[in-house]
Each structure stands twice: as structure tokens, then as C-alpha cells.
Amino acid sequence: MEIIKLYATSAIGVILIQTGIIFLGDQLFGKKYYFIYFLVGTAILLVYNFTVYRLVIWRKKPHK
């Protein structure tokens, strides 16, 4: 079940966060700085993935 959560959160992050930042940067500032938008989107995605993986997907379950 965790692997499905992993794939789902990764896909959502890439589609919404990384692609969204690249799209917004392109619309606001043009294609000249595409690589910068990509790096910023990737950095934010990395923080998002780490946080979601740590707090939701791979959290330690309490012992019963």
C-alpha cells in the first residue's frame, strides 16, 4: 500500500508543483530562464517529497 502512496504523491508533486512553477515562470518571465524555473521547481518538489514521505508514507506506526 505504501508504494501506491509513494507513486501517487510523486505524480501529484511533479504535475502540480514542478510543472506549475515552470509554467508560471514561463508565463511571467518568458522562456529565457527556463532552466532556473526547472531548478526552483525541482528544489521545492524535493522538499515536498521529503516532507510527505517522512510524515505520511513512511511514518512509524505505534506498537500495539
TL;DR of this structure?
By secondary structure, the protein is mainly alpha-helical. It is built from 2 helices and no strands.
What value does the Rg take, in angstroms? 15 Å
| Portion in strands | under 5%
Task: Describe the largest sheet.
Answer: none
**Helical stretch count?**
2
Instruction: Give the class from helix and strand content and strand pairing.
Output: mainly alpha
Distance between the amino and carboxyl termini: 20 Å
> What's the order of the H and E elements?
HH
| Overall number of strands | 0
Helix content estimate: over 70%
The low-confidence runs, each spanning 5 or more residues with pLDDT under 50, are none
Query: Rough shape?
Result: elongated
Give the overall pLDDT as a whole number: 89
Describe the structure.
This protein has 64 residues and is mainly α. Helix content is 81%, strand content 0%. The chain has 2 helices and no strands.
Keywords:
64 residues, mainly alpha, 0% strand
Question: How are the SSEs placed, and which strands pair?
Answer:
Blueprint: H1 2-29, H2 34-57
